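Support request from a user on the community tier.

User writes: "When I paste my structure tokens into the form, the page sometimes reloads and wipes my input. The last time it worked, I copied everything first. Here is what I submitted, just in case something in the input itself triggers the reload:"
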């Protein structure tokens, strides 16, 4: 018996940096039948499109005109704020890389309202970590305490407020430079702490999840640790992710998590 052919599926993309480049390469290998309807880039944005010729648009209206079945945001928190509500309001499901943007209450409300009005779905993949399903389950049993610790090489924290809190170029040992809530971590470190927001949303909440950020010159990986405790038990997860060679601030696993979410939504994974 021959397999039934899968229905056509098209993907729109907002942004094309390190994450977008890797996601589309994975999709090309795993599901070459997924059509890229358009890539939305602001005027003057870097164009890493040498590996595959892709249609480029410069407005969200032009992106919607290509009628994608799903849109991937991988351009940062500002781009999600600018294009996310309009995408959802147009009735198109949206996969979000910049989950940390949901720490902004006004934006989070705008996205959820737009999703409701457009009968669309806001999809939040786990990104660089695992165990979010367990956190969500633990929360059902009662209040939980959650600590998330992010340990990265000093180079990963360049261009962030960490530069004013410690001398990243001269560190000789692991140096915690931030301790606070997931909400503030996600807003203050938008290119490094999207994971903090994902953990907060899945578990104890953005304002109840404790976050520690560490610069460590002895490590070569982006290490994520989650400690949680509640009425149903305890959990400890550690994941050592390799930094993306094109952007050491993010783990390679982030792009693969997004790609898997797209494949699953398209019925191909």
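"...and here is what came back when it finally went through:"
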């Amino acid at each position: 018996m021959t397999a039934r052919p899968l229905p056509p599926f098209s993907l729109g993309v907002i942004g094309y940096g390190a994450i977008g480049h890797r996601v589309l390469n994975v999709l090309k290998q795993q599901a070459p039948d997924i059509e890229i309807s358009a890539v939305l880039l602001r005027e003057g944005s870097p164009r890493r499109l040498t590996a595959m010729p892709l249609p480029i648009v410069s407005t969200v209206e032009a992106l919607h005109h290509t009628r994608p079945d799903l849109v991937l945001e991988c351009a940062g928190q500002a781009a999600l704020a600018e294009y996310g509500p309009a995408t959802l309001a147009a009735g198109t499901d949206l996969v979000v890389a910049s989950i940390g943007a949901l720490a902004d209450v006004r934006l989070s409300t705008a996205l959820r309202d737009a999703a409701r009005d457009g009968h669309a779905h806001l999809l939040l993949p786990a990104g660089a970590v695992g165990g979010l399903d367990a956190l969500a389950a633990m929360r059902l049993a009662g209040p939980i305490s959650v600590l998330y610790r992010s340990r990265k090489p000093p180079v990963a924290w360049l261009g962030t407020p960490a530069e004013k809190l410690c001398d990243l170029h001269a560190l000789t040992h692991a140096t915690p430079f931030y301790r606070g809530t997931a909400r503030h971590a996600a807003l203050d470190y938008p290119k490094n702490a999207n994971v903090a927001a994902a953990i907060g949303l899945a578990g104890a909440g953005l304002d109840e999840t404790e976050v520690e950020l560490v610069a460590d010159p002895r490590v070569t990986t982006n290490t994520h640790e989650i400690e949680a405790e509640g009425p149903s038990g305890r959990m400890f997860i550690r994941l050592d992710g390799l930094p993306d060679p094109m952007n050491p601030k993010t783990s390679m696993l982030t792009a693969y998590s997004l790609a898997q979410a797209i494949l699953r939504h398209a019925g191909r994974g």
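Agent notes: The reload is a front-end session timeout and is unrelated to the input. The first strand starts at residue 10 and ends at 14. The chain is about 35% helix and 25% strand. Escalated to web team.
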